[in-house]
């Protein structure tokens, strides 16, 4: 559903609907279906482009974490993959921001030229190999870190404004 947000999905267990999406192209609404509305609201958007690569999707703020890596999700050219180097780049972006043993929720989509990635590494095509591994690692790490830092700066400014506003209110 995340890879193809313009397709409407309805999954049932035979008796009740376990997942239903609108097919309207809105990935945040799919996140709401998967994780709940409150989690989807908190997710931070990532949008970056560089050297023919584009990284889009959502990452969780440092206040929203899990105790395992299961909800770290990457797609390359709309194909779900398990790629250690992408997970490492993501975790490096969060370096010093998360408590030990905590992991972010992510749904990130890396689009790149097909000739830059070899999908024939694993029988299920879940693992890939990159032609320029270091370049991709750096791009993902910097893009995620930039989104995180922008969020942290905005949060700090909001807190300062609220503190100043509260002080002015007390002085009257």
- The H-and-E topology, N to C, reads as EEHHEEEEEHEEEEH
> Main beta sheet: strand number and arrangement?
5 strands, mixed
Helix content: 25-40%
Oligomer classification: single chain
From the spread of the alpha carbons, the general shape counts as globular
Q: Which ranges are low-confidence, i.e. pLDDT below 50, for 5 or more consecutive residues?
A: none
- Please state how the strands of the largest beta sheet are arranged side by side: 3-4-9-6-7
Overall SS class: alpha+beta
Percentage of β-strand residues: 25-35%
Number of helices: 4
Count all strands and give the number: 11
Give the termini distance in whole angstroms: 54 Å
Mean pLDDT across all amino acids: 89
Radius of gyration: 19 Å
Please describe what this structure looks like.
It contains four helices and eleven strands; from the N terminus they run ββααβββββαββββα. With 172 residues, the protein is an alpha+beta fold. The strands form four sheets. Strands 3-4-9-6-7 form a five-stranded mixed beta sheet, covered by helices on one side.
Give a quick precis of the structure.
With 172 residues, the protein is of the alpha+beta class. The chain has four helices and eleven strands; from the N terminus they run ββααβββββαββββα.
């Amino acid at each position: 559903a995340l890879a193809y947000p313009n397709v409407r999905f309805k999954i049932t267990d035979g008796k009740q609907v376990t997942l239903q999406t609108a097919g309207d192209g809105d990935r945040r609404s799919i996140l709401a279906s998967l994780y709940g509305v409150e989690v989807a609201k908190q997710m931070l958007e990532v949008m970056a482009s560089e050297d023919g690569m584009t990284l889009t999707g959502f990452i969780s703020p440092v206040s929203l974490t899990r105790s395992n890596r299961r909800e770290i999700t990457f797609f390359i050219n709309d194909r779900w993959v398990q790629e250690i180097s992408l997970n490492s780049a993501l975790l490096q972006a969060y370096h010093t921001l998360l408590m030990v043993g905590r992991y972010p929720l992510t749904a990130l989509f890396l689009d790149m030229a097909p000739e830059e990635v070899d999908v024939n590494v694993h029988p299920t095509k879940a693992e890939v190999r990159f032609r320029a591994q270091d370049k991709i690692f750096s791009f993902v790490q910097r893009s995620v870190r930039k989104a995180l830092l922008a969020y942290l700066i905005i949060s700090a400014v909001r807190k300062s404004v609220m503190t100043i506003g509260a002080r002015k209110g007390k002085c009257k």
